[in-house]
Design a protein that fits this description.
Blueprint lengths: L10 E3 L2 E3 L16 E4 L1 H5 L9 H12 L5 E6 L12 H10 L9 E5 L3 H11 L21 H5 L37 E9 L2 H8 L3 H17 L4 E6 L13 H13 L4 E6 L6 H13 L7 E5 L6 H11 L3 E4 L19 H10 L8 H15 L6 H10 L2
Parallel strand pairs: 3-10, 4-5, 5-6, 6-7, 7-8, 8-9, 9-10
Antiparallel strand pairs: 1-2
Helix pairs in contact: 2-12, 3-4, 8-9, 9-10, 11-12, 12-13
Length: 399
């Protein structure tokens, strides 16, 4: 629900940020639940050269919905001439509103809107559908959906032991105890939007043809309209750990300032993105410390890593140590950035979930089902499957 009255989440003073709420973190690395935002159908596909049909996109979303993931980026209301792959996002929205796929838990479907016109187009597409977030919407437990074989068994299979380093975990790995799946539900599905800006001037001008300050002003208009419709808003800060134009040394204080600006205008969550994959463990830690010093709470943040230099999972663990519990990923490692040459895909969802489960975290996601989707969609695209865990799990299942 929209806030009844606006209370600034961060208070500014001249030349610095004054903390008006205490930053909170946890010293326990692996305790609790971890939320995964699946970005494959939008961020994953937008840079693919092979055009995807509406039917294939909907099939991808349908399959993902059955894995237990509860947040899916479904499309983008951007001009087709800039991102042709997203040209049928209105059709995707219409289909998901009218014929949502069955899923074990309610799902939040997210749509990127680059400007006010994008949100207006989304609202026009949704027409009379109420997109507001219910205040009493319960949070589903993070238990993974069982496979058809498991549903036929009277007792759930035990969790695979981790004593043998060569033994791979089953799809229930990482859970404290096996639990029967929840019944399928689409009644609680929600629609939210995401907006974006950048941490560097050069990237902002290349990506949106405006300065960072101008992009934030555009974001304010979008947030205001979204909140008038009681729609949740997610923000992205691109190139937070390295810029293709300004280099790897993006000032953490600048990222914190932009993140704070988004939260102050009413954005509900900010995903801090390593768009280029230049992030390293020390620089990720420094960035998180800067966000902490700015008074930004962990629950308002997500981390978004690309795996260009193979550091994504290392950076995820740094985020876990800091207390972050929301991470973006893309099935099969799909992705890239049209404004960052050489940047490879997002961290693969299969790899992320496998890693988290091995550390004792819970995600509610069936990693084996996710691995099957990764193999299928990369085959559809005619590209390499970039998930090492996914390929290993499938090899095990097929023996």
């Amino acid at each position: 629900m929209a806030r009844s009255s606006f209370v600034p989440r961060l208070a500014r003073t001249v030349g610095q940020l004054r903390i008006n709420r205490r930053f909170s973190t946890t010293s326990c690395l692996f305790a609790g639940e971890v939320r995964i935002v699946e970005v494959g159908p939008r961020d994953g596909l937008q840079n693919e050269k092979k055009s995807m049909s509406l039917e294939t996109k909907l099939e991808l979303i349908r399959r993902l919905a059955q894995t237990g993931v509860r947040d899916i980026e479904a499309g983008s209301f951007v001009a087709p001439k800039w991102v042709p792959q997203m040209a049928n996002s209105a059709d995707v929205l219409n289909h998901l509103l009218g014929h949502p796929p069955s899923a074990p838990y309610p799902i939040t479907y997210n749509y990127l809107v680059p400007n006010l016109k994008g949100l207006q187009n989304l609202l026009r597409t949704a027409d009379d559908v109420d997109l507001s977030q219910p205040s009493d919407h319960p949070k589903a437990p993070l238990t993974p959906p069982a496979s058809p074989e498991e549903q036929q068994e009277a007792e759930p299979a035990p969790i695979t032991s981790t004593d043998d380093p060569n033994e791979m975990p089953s799809d229930t790995s990482g859970l404290n105890e096996p639990v029967k799946p929840a019944s399928s539900s689409t009644l609680g599905n929600q629609t939210e939007i995401s907006i974006f800006t950048a941490a560097t001037e050069a990237f902002s001008k290349a990506n949106t043809n405006c300065s960072v300050a101008e992009s934030l002003e555009r974001c304010k208009e979008i947030v205001a309209l979204a909140k008038s419709h009681e729609i949740r808003v997610r923000g992205y800060v691109s190139v937070a750990l390295g810029c293709p134009y300004e280099g790897p040394d993006v000032a953490p204080s600048r990222v914190a300032e932009v993140t704070a600006s988004l939260l102050e205008m009413g954005v509900d969550e900010v995903s801090v993105a390593d768009t280029t994959g230049m992030g390293t463990a020390p620089r990720t830690r420094n960035l998180l410390n800067a966000l902490s010093a700015a008074g930004i709470a962990n629950q308002d943040l997500a981390l978004h890593f690309h795996d260009t230099f193979g550091q994504a999972l290392v950076n995820v663990v740094v985020g876990l140590e800091h207390g972050i519990r929301t991470f973006d990923s893309s099935v099969g490692g799909l992705g890239g950035c049209p404004y960052s040459k050489g940047a490879t895909g997002n961290v693969a969802t299969e790899d992320l979930v496998y890693c988290l489960h091995s550390l004792g975290a819970t995600t509610g996601i069936n990693v084996e089902k996710m691995a099957e989707i990764g193999a299928w969609i990369t085959s559809e695209l005619g590209r390499e499957n970039d998930s090492r865990a996914g390929k290993a799990l499938l090899a095990r299942l097929r023996t």
